[in-house]
Design the sequence.
């Protein structure tokens, strides 16, 4: 049975000592199977669960999300991995189930941000997925169920304190939600707008060719946005988020962050990076940090000397020419925006990172400028008419 109320260790910060979670009906929609969830854990759990539930409902594929501080670092559905991605995601030594594949993709989008993540999974957790999670640094998980052996694997994480929540799949929230801020109560209708292919019919660009894969990626990016702190821009490819720019005050900054993450995701598949030779015994987080340091480039001789701790052979930095040559091969990326794109500069930035499809609300005074930019680059531009702010 689900608990009616839980006392939490503290709120957002340790000095906010009085904290609890409860439901107006007297029954929480989840059960704690292991560990003791915190305030932020539950905010991540309740948001991320909605994301994977919607991905599964719309695309009928196992779905996963890697959440940090109320936004997805990554989200994905179960699309088979290439050999390069298996190596880039550090899963080439594992046999992955479809659900494990979805989580490997979600985790692999931005591995630095996913360090210590909250995991959400749409399906019952199997042994394959539990083994993958078992070797990653993570704070907790929410899923609709767990195979007995999988649950035992997860219970061993963090010295037995890993938080495991089981969500009631039948739970539906009330039609209105409330939030109290500074003693003032705000109330609104819940955002129950389902993101489906019906929203993608208004193609306003000259190029109107949308493949089934592109449509899938449009839905992945747009559903991820629905549960990302605004303003936000999300980029997706191959059934997964590859860059998420969240919580910025201007949309171009969101685009730049998302595009930078997408480029880094693609660069991690560069043969020079896949061929890096690490010192024996180097742990996975240390390898990830070493790769990120290598990607930053332009390191001083002193900093490069520190690489000897990580690499058997100290690599030469990846040149700007090699980076650009590789990134120029990135094509067919979807960019989705949680509101209208106000200026064409967002499109001008996006095309440098392989964007071929843009999904946005529309309704800007400069819609014609944005459409003209899309046409200039041969992009597909879709106007949904639906804003997806999330705060």
Sequence:
């Amino acid at each position: 049975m689900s608990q009616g109320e839980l006392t939490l260790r503290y709120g957002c910060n340790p000095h906010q000592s009085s904290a609890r979670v409860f439901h107006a009906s007297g029954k929480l929609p989840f059960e704690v199977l292991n560990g003791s969830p915190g305030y932020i854990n539950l905010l991540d759990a309740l948001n991320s669960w909605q994301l994977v539930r919607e991905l599964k409902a719309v695309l009928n594929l196992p779905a996963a999300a890697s959440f940090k501080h109320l936004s997805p670092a990554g989200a994905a559905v179960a699309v088979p991995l290439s050999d390069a991605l298996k190596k880039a995601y550090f899963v080439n030594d594992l046999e992955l189930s479809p659900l494990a594949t979805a989580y490997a993709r979600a985790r692999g989008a931005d591995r630095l941000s996913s360090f210590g993540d909250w995991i959400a999974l749409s399906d019952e957790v199997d042994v394959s997925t539990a083994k993958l999670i078992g070797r990653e640094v993570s704070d907790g998980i929410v899923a609709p169920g767990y195979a007995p052996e999988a649950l035992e694997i997860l219970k061993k994480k963090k010295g037995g304190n890993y938080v495991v929540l089981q969500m009631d799949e039948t739970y539906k929230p009330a039609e209105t939600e409330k939030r109290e801020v500074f003693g003032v109560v705000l109330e609104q209708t819940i955002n129950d707008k389902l993101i489906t292919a019906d929203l993608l019919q208004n193609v306003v660009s000259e190029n109107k060719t949308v493949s089934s894969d592109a449509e899938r990626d449009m839905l992945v990016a747009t559903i991820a946005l629905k549960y990302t702190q605004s303003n936000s821009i999300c980029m997706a490819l191959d059934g997964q988020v590859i860059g998420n720019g969240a919580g910025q005050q201007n949309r171009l900054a969101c685009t730049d962050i998302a595009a930078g993450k997408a480029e880094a995701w693609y660069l991690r598949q560069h043969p020079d990076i896949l061929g890096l030779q690490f010192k024996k015994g180097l742990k996975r987080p240390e390898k990830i940090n070493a790769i990120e340091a290598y990607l930053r480039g332009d390191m001083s001789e002193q900093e490069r000397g520190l690489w000897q701790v990580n690499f058997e052979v100290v690599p030469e930095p990846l040149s700007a020419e090699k980076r650009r040559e590789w990134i120029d091969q990135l094509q067919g990326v979807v960019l989705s925006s949680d509101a209208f794109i106000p200026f064409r500069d967002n499109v001008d930035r996006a095309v440098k990172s392989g964007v071929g499809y843009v999904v946005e609300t529309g309704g800007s005074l400069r819609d014609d400028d944005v459409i003209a930019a899309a046409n200039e680059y041969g992009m597909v531009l879709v106007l949904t008419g639906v804003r997806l702010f999330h705060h």
